[in-house]
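Run log, item B.
One chain of 212 residues. Sequence copied directly from the ordering sheet:
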Amino acid sequence: MSTVVAEEVIPVAAPAYDTGAFDPLVELNGVWTPDLADRYLPIPGMPPVKYECQDGHLIVSPYEGSANIYAADELRDRLKPHAKSIDGGAYTTLNIQLTPDSWIQPDFAVLREPARGRVWIPATQALLVGECVSPSSRVADRIDKPAMCAAAGIAYFMRVEVSYTKNHAEITLLRLAEHGTYEVHAKALAGSTFETREPFPLSFDPAELLED
């Protein structure tokens, strides 16, 4: 048996007795799908968390702190008019389904068409997904999620790092290359200009993602 904690799955010994109670975190480990998520999530009694899934294994992580929320909102606002120009939409957290048993909840995303109330968004509809890196998700946001999104064919992945204690802000835009992995397309630190023409024209100082 196993139980799921933030960002990792840790095996544990089976209990010495069987209470007979159904625990979806245990019983469904390794077989999670959106249909099962609709049926059993959120878990009653648990604090508000993000539920993501990789190859049927549920990943539970805390919601972002205010620094990341502010940065994600700012980026969504900058991307929204561009998304509308292609008859799409820009959003904060959505369920982006990458495979039948894998999904992520990026901090912001641009869709090729409006979500219009849908709970599960196929990866084919995502033009760009973005993650604001936090201590609990550093490995996932830097390695795991980009790899999963590239495999799903999402054209752009934006990684953002902000820190008020270090007065630091950094944006990295990755673009899907012909060989199926991401390459750095544009990158900038606070005090310089992040500039790109793809997928939309953007030009601003990453320091603007830090709240005054």
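Observations after the first pass:
- The radius of gyration is 18 Å.
- Confidence is low (pLDDT under 50) at residues 1-18.
Flagged for discussion on Thursday.
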